[in-house]
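Can you please make up a whole protein chain along with its backbone structure tokens because I've never seen that pairing?
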Amino acid sequence: MSGGAIVMMLVAMLIIWGGLALAIVNLRRSPDVPRPDEVKRDL
């Protein structure tokens, strides 16, 4: 592998793993579970 290919691979890995880490942090901060007083049932 050339030096440029290794750099591109590292950049791609940082983007993918960084995006995954940011998604996990975002989910931990604001989960998609509504509070009981916000739940409305349409029957």
